[in-house]
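Changelog excerpt

This revision adds worked examples to the README so contributors can see how folded entries look when concatenated. The first example is reproduced verbatim below.
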Amino acid sequence: MPIIRKNLLQALFSGAYLLRWNDKLRPVELLEIDKQAHKMLLACVLWHENSQTMPETERLALARDIIEGGLFDYFYRLIITDIKPPVFYRIKKNPEHFRALTEHVLARLEPQISQLGPFWQRMQTWHSELDQSTLARSILTAAHLFASHWEFCLIKPLNTFDDEMDDIGQSFAKRLDDLRFLKGMNAMLTPNTALSRLANLCGQLRFQIRWTQVPRIPATSVLGHMFVVAAFAYFFSLSVDACMARANNNFFCGLFHDLPELLTRDIISPVKQSVPCLPGILREYEAEELERRIFRPLREEGMALLVERISYYLGIAVGSEFQETVREGGVITKINGFESLQKSCNADALDPKDGQMLKVCDLLAAFLEAHSSIRNGVSSPHLQEAQARIRAKLCESELECLQLEALLADFD
C-alpha cells in the first residue's frame, strides 16, 4: 500500500515556483500550478461530456486515465520547465532523443514518486507509449491548449513588439481547431456560451491570492491551491485502497472545492469563525451566485447532467463538500464518517466520495503553503501561528491510516 511522504508533497507543490511565459511581458505572474489546475478543471468537463454514453466501467477508467495522465504530464513538466515548447516538440519528433530525455526525467522523479507503487509503474508506461491518439490524451491536450491559450490572450496585448506572437497565436488556433471533434470543445471555444464562460471563470481564480493579509513566498492562488488539494486527495485515496470511483471523485472534488470563492473571494478562517452568522450568509450567497452565473446557464444549454456532477463534488445536497456521501440511482446519501465509508461503501457502484479525508488534504495544502514560506525566509507571527494551528488540527485527525503525525514529523 502506498505511503505518502514529504518529498512527494513538496515535489507536487514545487509548481508554485515555476513561472510560465517567462520570456514575455506579463500583467501578472503566471504559474505552472495555476495552469495545471485550469487544465484539469477543463479536462473534467470534457471527460463528463465525452463519456456519457459509455458503460460505467469504461467511464471510470477514462476518468482515471485523464487524472493520472494529467499528473504524469505535470511531474514531467516540472523537470523540463526550462525547455521552450518549440524545442520540446522538436525533441519529441525524434524518438531516440525523446526516449533519452524521458529516461532522464523519470530518473529524476523516481525518488519522489516510486513510493506510490502501481501509480509510478503506470507513469513509466504512460511516458513510453507510442500511441498519442487515445481519448484521454486528446482530452488532456485540448484542456492543456485551452488553458495555455487563455494565458496567451492575457499577455498578447502587452507584447505587440514581439515578432513571435503572431506565430504562437496561429499555432494555438490551428491545434485547438483540430480538437473540435471532442464533445463540448466547440462550445468551449465559442464566446459567450455557458461552457466558455465557465472555462473563463475557472481561469480567473488564479487572480485570487490566498492569505492576502499575510506576505508569503510563494504567494499561492486559490486556483493553484485547488490543484494541490486534488492531487493530495488522489494520492491519499491510493494509500487507503479506495475504489476507482471514489479516487476519481476525491480528485475532482478537491479540484472544484473552492470554485464558489470566485463569487465570494477567499475569506480567511479566523474572520469566518469570528462572526457566527457569517458562514451561513456566505453559503447562501454562494448558492445563489453559483445558480445564477454557472448552473442556470449550463442547464439552459442542455448540460443539466454536468450541473448535477459539479453539485455532487461541491456537496450542495448535503451542505458541505467535506461530508462523506454515496450516490445510488441519483439519490445522494450522507455517510457517517470515514470509517463507515471505508468499510461499507468503498465500491464503484455507490459512487462514493470522501469528506474528512478531503478536509485533511485542504489543511495539509494550507500547512505546506505556510511551511514553505517560512522555510523561504518570509515569515510573520500570523504565519507562524497559522502553521502551528493547522498542524495541531492535522494531528488531532482520527484518520490514523493516513499516518499524518509521521508525515508532519518529516517537516520538523
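The second example, added in the same revision:
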Amino acid sequence: MLINYLLIVLTGLLFGKLFISLSKKFALRYNILISQGTPLVGGFGMGLSFVLVSLFGFFLYGGLSREIVGIIIASSIMLILGIIDDWRELSISAKFFIQIIATFLLIIFGIKTQIAYIGNLLNVVITFIWVLAITNAFNHLDVIDGVAAGCAMIISCAFFTVALLNGDIKIAILCLALAVASLSCLIHNFPPAKIYMGNSGSHFVGFTLAAIALSISYAPLERKIALLSPLLILGLPIFDTAFLILMRLIKSRSIFKKSNDHLVLRLLRRGYSKKKALLFMIVLSLFFSLSGVILSQASSTTGAIIIVLAGVVSLLVTERIGRVPVND
C-alpha cells in the first residue's frame, strides 16, 4: 500500500511539473493568461494533474465511486470557470451562478452534509453555504505568492490523514492527488513566483477541498464534537475571510469590494518579506489543520480544549495584525 502511495506522489509531481511547464510556455508564446508578465497557468496545471493522478490512483485501488465521479466532474467545472475568469474577468453574479451549478452537481452525486436530526432540506442548504464559503475563502487567500498553494497542500494532507484513520482509501487518494498537485504549483509559485495560481487554481482548490470535507465521516454519536474537525482543518481560509470581513465592517467598507486589508497584506505592511509572510501563514495553517486532525480523534473534553485554544490563537492574531494600518 505504501508503494502505491509513493507511485501516486511521484506520478503527481511528474504530471504537475509537465503540465505547468507546458502551460507556461504556451501562455508566454501566445501572450494569453498573463498578469504583470507572469502566466496565470498554475491552476490549469494543478487541475489537470489532479484529475489524471486521481484516475491513476483509482486504477491502482480498484475503481471509482459515484461520489468520487461527482467531485471530479464538479471540480473540473470550477477549473474551467476560473480559466475563463482569468482570461476575461466574469461578474460576481456569473461566478456565483456557476458555483451554485457545480454545488448542485455535488448534491446530485450524493455529496452533502449528513447532520442527523436536521432533515434533508437543511442539510442541502448548509451544503450550499459551506461549498460557496470555502471556495471564495480560498480565492480571497490567494493574494501573494505561495499562500493558497501552500495552505492547500497542508489542508489536503490533513484530510488525507483523517481519511486514512477512518479507512476511507478512495477519499485519501483524492486528498493525496490534490496535495501533490498543490506542491507542484507551490514549487513554481514560491516567491518570487514564476507562475500564478490564478482564479482557476483558487476556485478549483477551494471547491475541491470543500467537497472532500463533506465526503469524510468524522463523528460517531458519542463524539459529536468531532463534527467541527473540517472547520479547524480549513481554519486558515475561514479565519482569513472572517478577519477580512471584520476589518471591512469596522471601516464601514463593502465586504465585496477589493482592498488591501487582507491578513497577509497587513503582514507585508508590518515589514515582513513575502517569504516571511508566507511562512507565517503556513505555520498558522499547520496549527489549524493539526488541531482539526487531533479533534477528529479526541474525546469531547480534549476536543473542547483544542477548540478554545484555536479561538484564543485567532483572537491574538486578530488583535495584533488588525492594528496594522493600511491604505484606504
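Reviewer comment on example two: The CA atoms of residues 82 and 200 lie 3 Å apart. The chain is about 75% helix and 0% strand.
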